Amino acid sequence: MPDGLRKLIDSLREQATPRALAGVGILVVLLAAVGLSNLATSVAARQQDVRELDRSLAIQRSLANGQQWLDAAGELAAQKERVEARFWRGATTGIVSARLQSAIESAATQAGLDRVRVEVQARPDALAAGGRLEFEITLTARDRDGQFLNFFQRLQTLDGAVVPSDFQWVRGNTIVQATLRAPAIVETATGEAS
């Protein structure tokens, strides 16, 4: 302690009465209580700030996770668009059937199959809501030169998807029978799927 402060304290002790010392003690206790109260208030305010920052961080994390879900949903929507781009389309099931029949007959003829007969029917169970249907195509033809592989390759180049589900080739009488499936969207006059 500096000498000046020590001298001041010593002189106050010599001059102070017990009552004055008690008053100074109470004053020191009150000042300490006020200081502790201010400290407690400050700590409570900082704790509230920390809680608000934690809440803000939780919201940001939630939004970031939400963005991941939005990104995943966007990717799924893009994938759906790519898949549906290969669906056959038409205003009615009859138009879709006619397009399928024409495309399958043309692919079979170009592949070298003879006496081609194609039947197309819309399956009664829808693939999904919004006019998405599955068509079943039955092909019967003669294949004297084993050109059925060429036919299946030509199916892959069609405007829409056509997938073989059953196939029979009898070498003795050269008859090819194939069952094919094709997804389609039957659209309304406004261009939207019904």
From TrEMBL:
Keywords in alphabetical order: Membrane, Transmembrane, Transmembrane helix
Regions crossing the membrane: 20-45
Keyword Transmembrane helix belongs to the record: yes
Transmembrane helix is among the record's keywords: yes
The name this protein goes by in its record: Type II secretion system (T2SS), protein M subtype b
Species of provenance: Maricaulis virginensis
